[in-house]
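Subject: sequence -> structure tokens, single chain

Hey, anyone have a minute? Need the predicted structure for the following. Not urgent.
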Amino acid sequence: MTSQPLKLGFIGLGIMGAPMAGHLNAAGHQLFVFTHGKLPPALADSRATVCTSARGVAERADIVFIMVPDTPDVAAVLFADEGVAAGLKPGKTVVDMSSISPIETKQFAQKINALGCDYLDAPVSGGEVGAKAASLTIMVGGPEAAFERVRPLFELMGKNITRVGGNGDGQTCKVANQIIVALNIAAVGEALLFASKAGADPAKVRQALMGGFAASRILEVHGERMIKRTFQPGFRIGLHQKDLNLALSGARALGVALPQTAGAAQLMQACAANGMQDLDHSALVRALELMANHPVAPDASEWKDAA
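Reply:
Had a minute. Here:
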């Protein structure tokens, strides 16, 4: 906890941003917000001040948090005519918690630094559940002094908070995280599909595997989603697809082969091509199911012949 209330800005109040901003607000900080959607009820009923632009947030807040979907969105928030950069004064800090390009993050940091301000890239992992529970993993890139200054605020939103290195390193770490998560989702999907097609009860198979070396958070949470067909988004396929594209473009620039990542990206592309881009990323299993013409578990609305 910080010892006294701070003037904080938060831009982007979506599935993740709303609860994250809510934790800062609940801690008693003075919050200035800007979002393109409706103000979440929890903040609408609070003391948060709604600004008409990102510039307005930056003019009023000493530390500005950003949580938007993609690299172009961050660029617009920062450098549009009414963006954050237009409202900054030396000594302020910008914290981008979106998941975006590490290369462009370094460029954004340089521009903000030129204005006399600090920049931290601090992407998160944990999804909507982690955002609501304030248990996010936060991977930070940027100056150590700025990180230590903002750390008490990170602790209001997350549990596992690590300064990975300089600007861009937080985003690089997040891309690595998304590679691991995607490959684990694919692995769990293939395993449960194999078990189901072979005639075994996938729920019982999952239960058995949770007690062995194959146990994982992905098997626990996303395996259950695959079996129960609960694909409401905690983290959308379209966003994970974007993250894997960042991994593959980065790999090309580095001369690194990521064959398993490319395979997972194609499965997500297959889902998106079939109109599933707004489902939870656990729905990656549906690409496997389409190829097998067999569901992990019956869903009458989607698999009329499953019985």
